[in-house]
Amino acid sequence: MKKALFIGRFQPFHQGHLDALKQISESEVIIGIGSSQYSETDDNPLSFEERKKIIEEKLKNLNLNYKIIGIPDIHEETEWVDHVKKIVGNFDMVYTGNELVQTLFEQKGYVVHGIKKNIDISATEIRTEAKRLFEKLGKTKRTFSYCLGIAPITLEINRLKKKQNAIILAHSYQTTDIMYGVADFIGDSYGLAKIASQHDAQKIIFCSVHFMGETAKILNPEKEVFVPAVAGCSLAESITAEDVRNLKTRYPGIPVVTYVNTSAEVKAESDICCTSSNALKIIESLPDETIIFIPDILMGQNLQKQTKKKLILWNGTCIVHEQFDRQAVDNIRAQFPGTKILAHYECTSSVADAVDMVGSTGDMLKYVKENPAEHYMLITECGITDRVQTEFPDKHIVGSCQLCPYMKQIKLEDVLNALKSPKKEQIIELDKEILEKAKKSLDRMMEISTKAK
Ligand code: 13P
Ligand code: SF4
Asked: The pTM is what?
């Protein structure tokens, strides 16, 4: 059973170390890191324990049998190898990115594997990037060492996107590392669709669920659109194109208004689309007195209370928003009088009836920004509460939020991959006929939505 010694400062953490660790095939690895001279100095602001934590976090999914040992400084080069041996015990070969260390071990007869560093990112750049990230991410309790750990990847993403003339769009339910680390625009589904259409970038990386990437592609067929991960949505999965065709047979002549949280095939069967920020406007803009509204039954019930038209509904729900209950709203009202309570359209109507405003994610943020109240309960996904804490630190959140398992699938590594070497499933490609039909319903929505403003 061979044992490898891995010698690296791990400060700042660089991709070369990680890549090297992934390739080590020896059964056991000792990771030796400088524990005194490279700690808490201007050049290396983290302590040994903090660096150990970063490494453990990075290696979580690697299935590597390792232990981390701190190696105190010694100034005599000739004694250095013996010094290390005394501290870490026996090992059979060495991995290192440091040329001097490599020479010293080779002189003592060890086989040494050199590690290639991502040399075009310097320690100073990583530190500056970590500081930039910490200013935002620190507001939602991310530590400086966490920011240092992700800095090499956000730097690489931001460089690549500039080089490729790409823009990164992030829905407000994304994680803060994506929203504040790499996104050019953060917004709701309507706002991001509009940016995708108006921006002159040829390449769009859409950090959100799949249907939003599809929407961007439908509106801009000539642009390249990528999604970092293929993330679904319970509403989009609740209805198929065939279901819509059956509805149209059952209710001939009744127009179909389709919430954007649907597949391109479903949009292609619809008369017009809407988002939660313009649904009521779209419904009211149609001359018909009866309308098929798909697929969100809860949103449909909320809209039904706001319009005189008769809505025929489908039985889809959002697995995130359907979980909030009225009791939580009543409890917050009783405990924190004066709190403004806002809910997304996808909540149940018993929740919607009890709140101060029902709207889209964008409407909720606008309300918080413009309202003088200090306390808010936001009945929606946690990305919105993260945004409020980051962007409006004087406003306080009460009550709890819910995580969307689909939205939270997207990781920084996926964004990097979509820019570097996109996999087939990251590229949005649609059948020409479906795209053209779906485009008509989305174009109609964009037209009415902008006209009404
Ligand atoms: P918004 O249009 O409000 O961004 O909503 C999208 C969504 O998926 C809500 O769950
Ligand atoms: Fe879909 Fe609900 Fe997640 Fe929005 S929050 S993406 S509607 S599952």
From this structure: 0.84
CA angle 7, 11, 13 (to 5 degrees): 90
Q: Tens digit of pLDDT for each residue in 263-298?
A: 999 999 999 999 999 999 999 999 999 999 999 999
64 and 100 assigned to the same domain: yes
386 C-alpha to ligand 2 centroid (Å): 17
442 part of a folded domain: yes
* 349 and 336 belong to one structural domain: yes
Instruction: Tell whether 417 is covered by a domain.
Output: no
- Report the nearest-CA residue for atom 8 of ligand 1: 261
Give distance in angstroms: CA of 449 to centre of ligand 2.
Answer: 22
Q: Select from 114, 139, 167 the last residue of a domain.
A: 114
- 419 within some domain: no
* Ligand in closest contact with the CA of 274: 1
- CATH number of the domain enclosing 314: 3.40.50.10800
Residue 366 is part of which domain span? 321-402
Each residue's pLDDT tens digit, 325-348:
999 999 999 999 999 999 999 999
pLDDT digits (tens, 9 = 90+) for 366-422: 999 999 999 999 999 999 999 999 999 999 999 999 999 999 999 999 999 999 999
The Cβ of residue 122 has, within 10 Å, a number of other Cβ atoms equal to 11
CATH code for the domain in which residue 30 is found: 3.40.50.620
Q: Is the CB of 296 under 6 A from ligand 1?
A: no
**Ligand nearest 318 Cα, by number?**
2
432 and 297 belong to one structural domain = yes
d(CA 355, CA 350): 9
**353 and 332, same domain (yes or no):** yes
> 263 and 241 share a domain?
yes
Instruction: Specify the ligand 2 atom closest to the Cα of 208.
Output: 6
pLDDT band at 109 (very low <50, low <70, confident <90, very high): very high
Residue 418 located in a structural domain: no
